[in-house]
Amino acid sequence: MKRVFAATAASLVLAVATLAGQAGGGWVSMQSLDRWNPVGTVNWKVVGRELWSTNGNGFLVSKQSYANFQIRAEFWVSPDANSGIFIRCADPAKVGAAACYEVNIYDTRPDPAFRTGAIVDVARPADMTINTGNKWNSYEITARGTHLTVRLNGKTTVDTDDNKHASGPFALQAGIGVVRFRNVQIRELK
After folding, report:
1. How many domains does the chain have?
2. Model pLDDT for residues 142-152, shown as the tens digit of each residue
3. Hey, which residues does 149 pair with through a beta bridge?
4. Which domain holds residue 28?
5. Is 34 part of a structural domain of the chain?
6. Torsion angle defined by CA atoms of residues 136, 102, 47 and 176, in that order, rounded to the nearest 10 degrees
């Protein structure tokens, strides 16, 4: 009886350890710094259940590459912030709009065509009067083949096709201002 109990307990521990990084439905939580490589001068830290950037600028780049996926993330930025979520980055050491798709978080960008909700240099947001500063917002980003969609706070801002970048890691940016992310999750699509 003790052996059966020990075997059952060991199986349960293994199952819990396997699912620890998954949020259900194939979603994988990216809230641990262990899942990222820092690039640049920014200092990232976990505060409660949030990823905070302090001092400097740069990125958290996922250790894994993805081709077809969905990302869910919540972000809080100061009104002057310049941030974003970069996807399918060709070179994880050189994250930028030329090597990745940049889903922008930049309400005060001088060129309003690619402000928050846009994919920089690819697709303008459907609404160019977005204000995300000083409150929690949500992004849902889907990339399947050449089809890319961006939803901000439940509304589609981009629905387009582009074939520049097929796969790669994704990255969270800290540029200017206060930037916080929480509930960052990804799931691969078949």
Report:
1. 1
2. 999 999 999 99
3. 142, 159
4. 23-188
5. yes
6. -90
